[in-house]
Amino acid sequence: MSQQPTQPAFQTINTRGLNFRVLDQGAGTPLLLLHGFPDSLELWQAMTPQLLAAGFRVITYDQRGYGETDAPADSASYRIDEIVADATAILDALGVRQPVCLMGHDWGSAIAWALALQHPERVQALVAVSVGHPKSYGRAGVKQKLGKGLYVLGFQLRGLCEWYLLRAGGLRRWLGDSEHGDDTLRLMSRPGRLTAALNWYRENLRNAVFGEWGSVQCPTLGVWSSNDAYLTEEQMLDSEHFVNNSWAYQRIENTGHWIPLERPERLAQLAIEWFREHTTQPGNSTQPAQVQ
């Protein structure tokens, strides 16, 4: 008699003074997935079965200010160092002590880069989706800053930006007509939630562009999509200069910014292949790549 698939078991982890909604599934090598703006852990839902079938323990959570996780009112709570500390605290709470596989999209990719930089002992290998190394983003050309990335400056306008995105339909146009867009708009319409998400941009723009960022020490795969309306290919390709280990790049054609939603099977395949080649996991005798 075949077993019926079980529903994911969400849990609430209280750490660093906040309640985080967390989903921890499977066994094997831990794989931490970090979502970005304006999403939640549901961003990874379509990819998760493929990752579980490949033998990973898939860990996702709503980052601070998003989904069902608490949203601190003070803007300083959304600085990169605070958000990186959330990731390590959640891994600790789950009893994950070994180095993890790590994948992030959008802001989640930026946090993944920062996590690999600040805690190299906790990351076996990295897949950065859409957003390249912070230094590469910071030194990207005019097309990134004044073309595709001009919206980041608009996000600095407190109050006016919230009005435009929620009251004037800006967020709806951003997300498009889809179930993902409907769910995200509902979550962002709750009091204070959009401001919390925008504070990620407001607290970190200067540091992201002008900060001192080193090179990551883990094998890293960069993934970018040809129809990304917000990020240039240049800022991902340039990331190679800030990886002191194996580096590879994959371009996904005819796909927009939300790769985990538009091409989940392809992204999962790329991630599985990368992690199998560059990490130690059950059924894989390959040792982690040595730092060059």
Structure in words:
By secondary structure, the chain is of the alpha/beta class. It has a single domain (10-278), classed as 3-Layer(aba) Sandwich (Rossmann fold), CATH 3.40.50. 39% of the residues lie in helices and 17% in strands. The protein is built from 13 helices and eight strands. It has an eight-stranded mixed beta sheet, sandwiched between helices. Helix 2 (80-93) crosses helix 3. The longest helix has 18 residues, at 193-210. The protein is globular, with a radius of gyration of 18 Å. 42% of the residues are buried. Residues 282-292 have low confidence and may be disordered.
Number of helices: 13
CATH class categorisation: Alpha Beta
Largest β sheet strand count, sense and barrel closure: 8 strands, mixed
CATH topology label: Rossmann fold
Shape: globular
How would you summarize this macromolecular structure in one to three sentences?
The protein is α/β, with parallel strands linked by helices and 292 residues long. It has a single domain, classed as Alpha/Beta hydrolase fold, catalytic domain (Rossmann fold), CATH 3.40.50.1820. Helix content is 39%, strand content 17%.
Topology:
Blueprint: E1 10-15, E2 18-25, E3 29-34, H1 48-53, E4 56-61, H2 80-93, E5 100-105, H3 107-118, E6 123-129, H4 134-138, H5 142-148, H6 151-154, H7 160-167, H8 170-175, H9 179-188, H10 193-210, E7 220-225, H11 233-237, E8 247-252, H12 259-262, H13 264-278
